[in-house]
């Protein structure tokens, strides 16, 4: 584990390992511990795929808690935390995400199949047979970066041009898959669409998926040719 400063009021814990579900669980356990301790000077905790940034109020630490060196204090605090994570103890069923693959729902799939030299049925099987885990949240509210994709589907390019990408679009990026949660424009490679709403600001728990959750894609036939929130 590597610990280093990020500016004058943040510290980063890097696990320096390959991104795996165990790595994510380790970071979540550390975040849970810090939240439970309710340190008054920690203002924000931001986990990513393989590290976590802890933002702290250095001024408050010096003035109200008589801590002479906030960074050194935070570093020693993090080094002192010992958490034993029993991976796989709390196994839950993956969330099933139906997907309409290809056609108007996945406008980039046909060109992608030519790139892979693969037929559509094989692609769908490879993409949907794996269990993915949410290794990072970002880009837009509730947007899950999904790790666990079959290596045969890794890509090293994006789309040729930027285009309108509606919420619900299932995309590929590098070694990951993802699900767009708000209408946007971009050059992601869009392979399909899900009618499942992953982000709903009208609900108290407004994101369907959270960091560390698991999902499975399921190929489904569309009931309508309309997308963008009307399926």
Automatic annotation (TrEMBL):
A matching Pfam family: CT_C_D
One GO MF term: 5-oxoprolinase (ATP-hydrolyzing) activity
Record key words, sorted: ATP-binding, Hydrolase, Nucleotide-binding
UniProt xrefs under InterPro entries: CT_C_D, Cyclophilin-like_dom_sf, PxpB
SUPFAM superfamilies: Cyclophilin-like, PH0987 N-terminal domain-like
The protein's Enzyme Commission number: 3.5.2.9
Keyword field contains Zinc: no
Residue span, Carboxyltransferase domain: 1-209
KW ATP-binding (keyword) present: yes
NCBIfam families linked to this entry: 5-oxoprolinase subunit PxpB
Name this protein carries in UniProt: 5-oxoprolinase subunit PxpB
Organism name: Staphylococcus debuckii
